[in-house]
Amino acid sequence: MSAIQKQNTFRGLTGGPPAGKILPFILPLSVFVLVLAAWALAAFLLPARHQYLFPSPVKTAAILWESLPELLVSAGSSFLILAPGFLGAVAVGVLWGLVVGTSQSLRQMFIPFARVVAPVPATVYIPYAIALLPTFRSSAIFIVLLAAFWPVFMNTAAGALTVPEPHNDSASVLGLSRFEYITKVVFPSALPHIFNGMHVGLGMAFVMLTVAELFGSTSGLGRFVQYYADYADFPRMLAGILFTGLITFLAMTGLGWLQRKLIFWPY
Question: How far is CA 28 from CA 19, 31, 33, 238, in A?
Fold first, then answer.
């Protein structure tokens, strides 16, 4: 009996998938269970006067459920900032990254500048953005765009340099124009790097979104957390933090799903 036949027989007897497919789900879940258990134990062992500062998971879950309508409204407000800022960063970062990555002269001009400016935290631009742009929403969108742009651009430019040499030779033989070369040869080859940059950029966008909302927003997830922190409502503040983490996780998971759908070849 071959190894495949043995595996199929085992699956037939047990009525479930092989352990190799279950294990990737059990390991992350076990970490969450351990953290939850440690949280519950810590909340139980704390003196009663400190339990308001560090509520139990059960109390936090109840507050989270109670605050869900307000949290959903806050998430919608944050999305109206995150979506245009992140999508704008992807559009500009991918376009400029492909152009720079396929031009040696532009690389020599722009990459050294990018290496100096990219590591500067986008938070330093928040006061200028609020002062110069007409509304808080436009300044927050700009900060999110700036934070997400550099990872997308740098990874796209790096991906443009990974085109296999046979593909370049084929493009030369076929006489492709620069536009055709970028769209039909470079862009597909750079897609894995582009998605890597998008993952980093999305994480940075969420960070900058929350920070920007702490400065002057009247709504949003960051404002929700800051508002209840100002009034020392720590259970509700913690519920807002957990909900923000959940939204971030869902966004990252959705981006990973899109990557698996668009990149179906090994890389």
Answer: 15, 5, 9, 22
Residue 116 to residue 113: CA distance in whole angstroms? 5
The structure tokens 């890597």 sit at: 196
Which pTM value belongs to this model?
A: 0.82
Q: What is the pLDDT of residues 193-226, one digit of tens each?
A: 999 999 999 999 999 988 888 776 778 888 898 8
CA nearest 153: which of 108, 190, 179? 190
Q: Is 50 domain-assigned?
A: no
User: Residue 231: CB partners within 8 Å, gap ≥ 6?
Assistant: none
- Tokens 């862009």 found at: 187
What are 61-98's pLDDT values in tens digits?
899 999 999 999 999 999 999 999 999 999 999 999 99
AA identity, residue 75: A
Q: Provide CB contacts within 8 A for 181, sequence distance 6+.
A: 102, 171
The residue range of the domain holding 121 is 57-262
Contact 92, 154 (CB under 8 A): no
Q: Give the three-class secondary structure for 131.
A: helix
Domains in the chain: how many in total?
A: 2
Centre a 10 Å sphere on the Cβ of residue 211 and count the other Cβ atoms it contains: 18
How far apart CA 74 and CA 236 sit, in angstroms, is: 14
